[in-house]
Design a protein that fits this description.
The protein has about 375 residues and is of the alpha/beta class. The chain is built from 15 helices and 12 strands. A 7-stranded mixed beta sheet has the order 2-8-7-6-5-3-4, sandwiched between helices. β3, α6 (about 130-135) and β4 form a beta-alpha-beta unit. α4 (about 70-85) runs parallel beside α12, α5 crosses α11 and α13 (about 290-310) runs parallel beside α15. The longest helix is centred in the last third of the chain and has 23 residues, at about 290-310. Bound molecules: pyridoxal-5'-phosphate.
Length: about 375
């Protein structure tokens, strides 16, 4: 027996090694502060869990879902976009329900591209974008996200050949891993480029609910003409601490939505209807839980950044997401620095080069432990006298 070439094509999981190292250290009895991963630490708000419990007792939810998701959840996505972003979305043609957004991000190259066609990806970027590249056997070029450009791609650096060849482009703000946010002007440039060069845009809005300093992250769909060129992926994993529930949706361009729905018609029946009912409740009901979550992350961000600054580590505060993107100490690569912190300080961070070539020189720190643990992590790092 052998694996298909398609499977062999898939990238190796860079962070599997980190997970292994952390697991081994913990098994040895070491008190590791794990800031390396991106799994929300808070529970799902109670009213959402209750909505699931109630829906699960209704036998109607025990049947197959409609293939393309329930009308209730699609309407909730529409209500959410109207209320949060003042964007009008048609529930019948402009919403696709998905088992989390990872699946949509992997499906789109399969659904919209032919082998060897070109897509454009941010570097550094969310590693799972490369799973879609591998499965669909497409090519990709990267768009560097540099500190001097506020971690936004510089479209003037794209060549005419790249603009002509590219079929699909992925963007992600608030950004994993850099914590940067986008501006309306940047999204306007994106729409102009997409129209001029006929590139379909996917804006991964995974951290859309998490913006700091009272600045609400901009939705790509708030930009005039965005729906003509792209879709936005929204997950409930982060905004409502529902990562384990696997629920998200895409909204926007009807052709792209149809591409997702068509491929999903062949791959899945949609989500457990009770999960869809609870997701609708999350989107429709009181959003105080989201405000509280953002305050919690902002408090942690401030604790981390203040502690780093106090030891002479010159770092930038992230504007959104639940990650901080910190430069490594002089003389180290990202991997050497991450290894040092784990080996000598029992602090696990993700080496920046795992997110792409332009991640070299940084480590990603998750704001997913409490303020005391974050401060303790910096105290332990301080003892290494690196800064
Ligand atoms: N996009 C980004 C940038 C992420 O960080 C994640 C999860 O970590 C996802 C998408 C996928 O989220 P989900 O599949 O839970 O919707």
């Amino acid at each position: 027996m052998d694996f298909s070439n398609r499977l062999k094509n898939l990238p190796t999981q860079f962070f599997a090694t980190l997970v292994q190292k952390v697991t081994t250290a913990i098994a040895e009895g070491r008190d590791v502060i794990n800031l390396g991963q991106g799994n929300p630490d808070q529970p799902t708000p109670e009213h959402i869990v209750k909505a699931l419990q109630e829906a699960a007792t209704n036998p109607q939810t025990h049947k197959y879902s409609p293939f393309r998701g329930t009308n209730e959840l699609k309407q909730a996505a529409v209500n959410f976009y109207k209320r949060e972003y003042n964007v009008d979305v048609d529930p019948n043609t402009e919403v696709a329900i998905m088992f989390g957004t990872k699946i949509g991000l992997v499906e789109l190259p399969l659904a919209m591209m032919n082998e060897n066609e070109l897509m454009l990806l941010p570097d550094p970027g969310y590693p799972d974008y490369l799973s879609g590249v591998g499965l669909a056997s497409v090519k990709y070029d990267t768009m560097p996200l540099l500190a001097k450009n506020n971690f936004l791609p510089d479209y003037t650096a794209l060549t005419d050949e790249q603009k002509q060849a590219a079929k699909l482009m992925y963007l992600n703000y608030p950004n994993n891993p850099t914590g940067a946010t986008a501006t309306k002007e940047f999204f306007e440039e994106t729409v102009a480029l997409a129209k001029e060069s006929n590139i379909a845009v996917v804006h991964d809005f995974a951290y859309g609910g998490i913006g700091f300093d009272d600045v609400k992250p901009v939705s790509f769909l708030q930009i005039a003409g965005a729906k003509e060129v792209g879709v936005e992926m929204y997950t409930l994993s982060k905004t409502y601490n529902m990562a384990g529930w696997r629920v998200g949706f895409a909204v926007g361009n009807p052709k792209m939505i149809e591409a997702i729905n068509l491929i999903q018609d062949h791959l899945f029946v949609s989500l457990f209807p009770a999960v869809q009912a609870a997701a609708a409740a999350a989107l429709n009901e009181d959003q105080q839980c989201v405000d509280e979550l953002v305050s919690l992350y902002e408090g942690r961000r401030n604790a981390l950044i203040d502690a780093c600054t106090a030891i002479g580590w010159h770092v930038q505060a992230p504007k959104g997401s639940f990650f901080a993107w910190l430069p490594v100490a002089e003389g180290y690569t990202s991997e050497e620095f991450a290894d040092l912190l784990l080996d000598k300080a029992d602090v696990a961070v993700a080496a920046g080069n795992g997110f792409g070539t332009y991640g070299e020189g940084y480590v990603r720190v998750g704001l997913l432990v409490n303020e005391e643990r974050l401060k303790e992590a910096v105290d332990r790092i301080a003892k290494l006298n690196l800064f």
